[in-house]
Amino acid sequence: MPDRGLGEADFEELVREVQSRMQGALDQQARLQLLLDAVVSMAADLNLDGVLSRIVGIAGRLVDAKYAALGVLGDSHEQPLRTFITHGIDDEEIVRIGELPKGHGLLGLIIDRPEPLRLHDIAEHPASYGFPPNHPAMHSFLGVPVRIRDRVFGNLYLSEKLDGNDFTADDEEVVVALAAAAGVSIENARLYEEARRREAWLRATAEITALLTDPAIGAGAVQAVVDRAREVAEADVAWIVAGPSSDKLSVRAVSGFTASYDELAELKLEHSISGTVVDSGEPATNPDVASGGLQVSVGSLPGCPVVGSATAVPLGSGDSSGALGLAWAPEHADLHRSLDPELPASFARQAALALQVAQARDDQQRLVMLEDRDRIGRDLHDLVIQRLFAVGLGLQGTGRLADRPEVAERLERAVDDIDATIKDIRRTIFALGTVESSEDIQAEVTRLVDRAAAALKFRPGLRFTGPVRSLVGKDVAPDLLAVLGEALSNAVKHAEASSLEVDLAAADEIVLTVTDDGRGIAPDAIESGLANIRRRAEQRGGTFTVESAPGEGTSLRWAVPRG
């Protein structure tokens, strides 16, 4: 009789093979459906960080891997991986493991040879470095490169298949397909983020242009530019240097920390990244400030954050040369790498034009003011002085006809007052023409005090504190002299003082103090000249205080930020 057991065994094996293949086909179909769903899911996310995290999680589920990771390639051989995204390891485990891989050993092998790699046991491979303490055990391994066009963006790493087996050729094929789709999704996300960055820079350019056309911006124009540039670049530090030539540069504004005028004035910019940009007229970058190359001078100032990378672009305004600088802390180096230098360069070009327009507007306003001063001076000379002179002559003639001595004496005093008024008006006419062109603020202050001494019949005390000549700029000088003139005039007319002290101090603030021992300001006094002094302080973001009591003298303090 035939051996029916053998035939039955062959048939049963055939059935099992058929069932196995059917199950495999179903598993493959399910896997392909999961892959399709994964591709659609990745394509729907335009946030790069979100896309990368999603890719890692999907890769692990597709091949039933307990652990998955994506290593994004860096720009240097010392640190091949700049970002390492994990799946399957919680935050506590990451803390226990310590520093994440940098791309050496087995991971570096795939970086050097970007092609799929499957291993039965990681530890058996010659390139394996082993695992650090507290690292979970890993044996089976699958690595696949992720490409964007013809360039390798990073690598997918998968380990520890859940069923305990090795990764199969089918697993490799599925992950390779996922990596191809991931490359497209990553490129789309990168393009989207680049478009958003360009939009942000364009919006910042429009905002700063509109801001600088506002006459109220005044001396804060440069600070507004550097603050907006730092904000849109997501930089930790920003600065602007400018000067008439590349060897006479100075830092005009910083953002991200606070520095005093003296600290900024002492910086050496000849061999800095900003000085290089001014000399060449081209953008410059330094991806690793600590390793040398172009240095960031502001990084040496107290309070400045630690600088890891920097970019500077040309900034020209009017007759000045300059540069806009941006720097990032080492932990934010990816923000520096992702920045297209043309974006801040375009912003700087537009900002420079806006600053030039603002400067031209200020010059025009100054010209109008000088024309008004010239007109007022002519009117005072041709009309007021002549009329006062005529009144004085008439009073002198009347005094000779007066029979009573006291009347003649009063008329004579009136004539003297008119002569003194004519002298004051002439000095005012002279001051109208010289205040704007004066180069020596200390000499101008001394001259005003000398004039007051003639009317007070005693010499007021005068003290200068700090580098007054260098710190009181041309934009502050007219207001300072006008305030001092008003304060001295009030003391001459109303104080009846026997002593008067003038103190001018220059540091981060310009502080003018005028103190007398006169009769003080009456509580019901009308504030006219003092209101003008207060308005001049407020327009410059400063303060004006008055301390006075009847019979106890008056102290005026006018303080404004240095220009």
Automatic annotation (TrEMBL):
Residue stretches making up the Histidine kinase domain: 480-563
Molecular functions (GO terms): kinase activity
Keyword Kinase: yes
Keywords tagged on the record: Kinase, Transferase, Two-component regulatory system
Pfam families recorded: GAF_2, HATPase_c, HisKA_3
Name recorded for this polypeptide: Two-component system sensor histidine kinase
Lineage of the organism: Bacteria, Bacillati, Actinomycetota, Actinomycetes, Propionibacteriales
